[in-house]
């Protein structure tokens, strides 16, 4: 296994610079998710790490070995990197056995290796002769992962591997695939634009936007304390508000809130970020607004409230306490996810 280090990586397609001096380090044995909006350059980064593209500038290391810089480009087959692509991952005309053993030298295409991989991916032995069209979406993804892991890669790259699965299957396939990666002790780099997937599956999440990495942190830390407003909005739902901060007292359209400690990052006129679960609907308060819409999710509902100044605040409420549209509700702020200058 091996770490992955990208340093100052730039990639230009014609006149467009897609990666703009990107730095990222994935530790040995760690699963890192790269989370970012569509078109921010995630797939380009994976293809550079895999060796399908040579960066315009910068350096890629796998462990200590430089595999790409201004002069060196080690070809993909010499990098020992497994790749699980977005869609059409399996060869449709090959059965599971031949899909899994595909990347191995002929002498290593043994029944023993096949069985090891089926066991690792928790696939029943009977599926060895099945064709991809006969498998569920989740099973197909596990076969794709088994195929990527069979040649004992140093690093496994996963490009939105669950995006073609339906929502219920996506969550379970994600958990299963991560369990296989961890069991194999593989270093994993998972690219996704789905924040729930990134937060729930990875050891750490790198938030990417417009060709650079904006923050790398553990999921809880990233959600609770994003480094700026943009990161906070890319990771989970958030309302951005303006307020006035004096010491630890924050005044805004949501009233006066005393923060647990005075933020060191900002004072005076500030922007701050509020998660839907940090706002409570209360009966008696001077900070009221009108319910604009309600989306019921089963275990909770999301209510959007328009304040007097036109600000729209998103609030998460219990399924038993859902207000009607058009009613006036009071809001109480319990905490913030970040205060910024
Ligand atoms: N081979 C190429 N030639 C020209 N432009 C390219 C090429 N590959 C990617 N691009 C452009 O680079 C940008 C980033 O693409 P990339 O696929 O890396 O983004 P992404 O973050 O993976 O997006 P998505 O989540 O939609 O897959 C896009 O604007 C894309 O059109």
From TrEMBL:
GO molecular function: ABC-type ferric iron transporter activity; ABC-type quaternary ammonium compound transporting activity; ATP binding; ATP hydrolysis activity
Keywords attached to this entry: ATP-binding, Cell membrane, Ion transport, Iron, Iron transport, Membrane, Nucleotide-binding, Transport
Pfam families: ABC_tran (PF00005), TOBE_2 (PF08402)
Membrane-spanning ranges: none
The EC number(s) this enzyme carries: 7.6.2.9
Domain ABC transporter: 4-235
Gene Ontology CC annotation, any one: ATP-binding cassette (ABC) transporter complex
Protein name: ABC-type quaternary amine transporter
């Amino acid at each position: 296994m091996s770490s992955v280090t990208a340093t100052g990586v730039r990639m230009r397609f014609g006149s467009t610079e897609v990666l703009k001096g990107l730095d990222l380090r994935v530790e040995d044995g760690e699963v890192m998710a790269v989370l970012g909006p569509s078109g921010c350059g995630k797939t380009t980064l994976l293809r550079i790490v895999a060796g399908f593209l040579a960066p315009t500038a910068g350096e890629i290391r796998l462990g200590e070995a430089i595999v790409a810089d201004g002069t060196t480009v080690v070809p993909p087959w010499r990098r020992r990197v497994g790749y699980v692509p977005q869609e059409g991952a399996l060869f449709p005309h090959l059965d599971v056995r031949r899909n899994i053993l595909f990347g191995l030298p002929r002498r290593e295409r043994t029944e023993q290796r096949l069985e090891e991989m089926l066991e690792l991916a928790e696939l029943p032995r009977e599926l060895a002769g099945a064709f991809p069209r006969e498998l569920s979406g989740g099973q197909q993804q596990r076969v794709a992962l088994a195929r990527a892991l069979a040649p004992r890669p140093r690093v496994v790259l996963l490009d939105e591997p669950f995006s073609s699965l339906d929502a219920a299957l996506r969550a379970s396939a994600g958990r299963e695939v991560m369990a296989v990666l961890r069991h194999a002790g593989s270093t994993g780099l998972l690219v996704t634009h789905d924040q729930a997937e990134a937060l729930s599956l990875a050891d750490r999440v790198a938030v990417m936007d417009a060709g650079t990495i904006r923050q790398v942190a553990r999921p809880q830390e990233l959600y609770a304390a994003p480094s700026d407003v943009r990161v906070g909005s890319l990771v989970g739902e958030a309302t951005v508000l303006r307020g006035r901060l004096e010491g630890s007292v924050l005044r805004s359209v949501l009233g006066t809130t005393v923060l647990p400690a005075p933020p060191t990052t900002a004072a005076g006129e500030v922007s701050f970020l509020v998660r839907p679960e940090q706002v409570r609907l209360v009966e008696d308060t001077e900070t009221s607004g009108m319910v604009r819409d309600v989306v019921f999710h089963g275990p909770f509902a999301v209510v959007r409230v328009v304040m007097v100044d036109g600000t729209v605040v998103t609030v998460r409420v219990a399924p038993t306490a859902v207000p009607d549209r058009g009613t006036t509700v009071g809001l109480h702020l319990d905490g913030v996810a970040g205060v910024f200058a």
